[in-house]
Amino acid sequence: MLVTFIEKVLPPKYATQIEKMVNYYKNIVGLIVCVSTLYNIYQYETTKDPGYIDMTNYIIITQNIIELPLVNLSSFVHHAIVLTLMYCKYYVSPYDVTKINKNLLMMEISSIPLIIRTMIHDSRRKSDKVQYYFYELIAAMLFTASFYYYRLDYYVENVLYDRSFYDQYTDISVKQIAYVFTYTFYFLNIYWFMIILKNWVKYFRSLISTNESTMYIINEWCLQYTSGITWITACIYYNSSMRWVYMYDLFGLFVLGISSYGYHTKIYNALVNAYPSFDIDTAHGSILPFYQLDVTCILMNGFFKTMTNIWRNSSEISFYILPYDLTFTTTRESLTVFFVILYGCGIYQSVTFLQKLQQTSTPFLYSETKFDWKFTKVNIYICLPLVVSILLSIIQSKSYELGIQNFTVLYVIILIRTMHIGYEYNHLLFHMSILWLTITICRLNLLD
User: H helices within 208-286, ranges in order?
Assistant: First the structure.
């Protein structure tokens, strides 16, 4: 962050030189740190001598302290978490955490292809050699795969799922620190992975010689059927152990599939008729009733999912909040009344908001899909009840692992909506994440 400030103050010529020097230093040092980390982990696995892990820790602590003023905000948060966890290991935790320490260090492996890709990219820029482009692409693919495996899949399996690491702390405040920082690490890695995916989407978009309007039309054609596929998927999952209470969820998904087909068919036809323009007004004309119906059915689906979760349990429902070791209990009837009010308010607010846009002749263009105030407002009305439902189902979950998966899907959905990862196909990517959420919810419901 300090370097960014200096670059803004200095003339562009000197700012560019400083940026190159800093990046060169970070790449060389980063590669040395990664290689030494790999070597020390190998030695630890061979000898079981924790001294190798300690040696790696000291190297990484030194690297992070030196780099703190040289990195952007997200990397600053990453470095701060690393230093905090190192402090907790050596000055707070009375237990041996070498195993979990080693699993955290494994994430550094994914940095090797990233550094190599950056070096290849810099070489390609200097010499302007096209053959370097292929090597850079291979390194980028290796980086994406290694990042997903070591920073997400491996991390979840060997750090977050390791309940013994958290349960060994009898001091609640220390346990909270362990949960907060390991989970912050996880969500930061997901955020970075979404940036990586967005860059890949951008790259593939550049290879396709299709204009924006055509991509929106293809997107809407696909969206006509995605909710129906989600309903079929839920039917397949519930078919293995059908209970009457699962019909709530299936009914909500069925209604949503019909409304989604109607709304996106209407949008698809409007885009075809308006081609090559795609700035159709979704809050006026014949589209508005379909939009209002779809919003209503989205919330109805969320409500019926919640009813499935509530009424599959006994008359009393317990919620357990892990970091605080807190448990509170309520009745199914009380929760039902709460969610009737919550979802009723969501439907009323979103439908009347869209109606007011029509009455005041305020356009709501199809292309307004990022941080336009109208898009943001209607999404808050829709998402607030859904997020509350999912969070309550997570803390009520009897499976710690499925609870993490549900929370992960929720976070990914939020990132897809806010970061616009899929560009013209972002809504399709959103529907695919809803399919993923439906699968995790079905698995959660089938635990009984």
Answer: 212-239, 246-274
CA angle, 286 then 290 then 292, to 5°: 115
- The SS3 assignment for 201 reads helix
Which pLDDT tens digit goes with each residue over 341-365?
Answer: 999 999 999 999 999 988 888 888 8
d(C-alpha 323, C-alpha 167), whole Å? 10
pTM strictly above 0.85: yes
Which pair of structure tokens corresponds to residue 342?
């919550």
Query: Within the chain, how many helices (H) and strands (E) appear?
Result: 17, 2
3-state SS of 352-414 is: HHHHHHHHCCCCCECCCCCCCHHHHHHHHHHHHHHHHHHHHHHHHCCCHHHHHHHHHHHHHHH
The C-alpha atoms of residue 286 and residue 266 are separated, in whole angstroms, by: 8
Lowest mean pLDDT among 135-139, 326-330, 368-372, 397-401: 368-372
Q: Is the dihedral of CA 58, 63, 66, 69 positive or negative?
A: negative
Q: How many angstroms separate the CA atoms of 45 and 37, rounded?
A: 12
Q: What token pair was written down for 76?
A: 């600053």
